From TrEMBL:
Record bears the keyword Kinase: no
Organism whose genome encodes this protein: Candidatus Sneabacter namystus
Gene Ontology MF annotations: methyltransferase activity; nucleic acid binding
Protein's recorded name: Methyltransferase domain-containing protein
Superkingdom to which the source organism belongs: Bacteria
One GO BP: rRNA methylation
Length: 179
């Protein structure tokens, strides 16, 4: 897996072999960023990015490569965090990778412009729980964009207003704002 565009183009992303997460394919990453680049409401340039359930960090690192200002990556897996921190240091990236439970976030120090949620498919209700935690602990506000990558059986989220959605094979990408 490599960064697709920007100043980190073709850099290999950190990947924990044998880990149960499924890295985001380049096709899905490209679809997300094409949608964002061609919609002024979803603009990510100079944005503060939050990547929950970050895994390899492919969303956050791609956003930084394309012009985001800063990224915070959160994952519970120790190895994902370790390899992500090495990638950040080796490439002098303006990011932090933190080992936290995305469903039980502490109070925020920063409100994020764009939040990316890609929980494991087996983690039912993870997006709903993460959104509740984000709102309760002030990680997002009414101008924040929430990008969710889910299977096609995605739930409705009463606290969110859908801006746009795209279906790619068996994956749904949905862009939201708070209601």
């Amino acid at each position: 897996m490599k960064i697709l565009k920007g100043y980190l183009k073709n850099k290999s992303l950190p990947y924990v072999k044998g880990h149960l997460y499924r890295p985001m394919t380049s096709v899905i990453r490209e679809a997300i960023f094409n949608t964002m680049e061609h919609n002024s409401e979803l603009h990510f340039y100079n944005a503060n990015i939050l990547d929950l359930f970050a895994g390899s960090g492919s969303f956050a690192f791609e956003a930084l490569s394309r012009g985001a200002k800063h990224a915070t990556l959160i994952d519970l897996n120790v190895k994902c965090v370790k390899y992500g921190k090495i990638f950040i240091k080796e490439n002098c990236i303006n990011a932090s990778f933190i080992q936290l439970n995305a469903l039980a976030l502490p109070k925020a120090r920063l409100v994020y412009d764009i939040v990316f949620l890609d929980p494991p498919y087996h983690a039912s209700n993870a997006i709903k729980a993460a959104i509740t935690s984000l709102i309760r602990n002030n990680w997002i506000n009414e101008s924040s964009i929430i990008v969710c990558k889910t299977d096609l059986k995605e739930q409705n989220y009463p606290s969110l207003n859908e801006i746009k959605s795209t279906i790619l094979r068996k994956t749904k990408i949905t862009f939201y704002k708070l209601c």
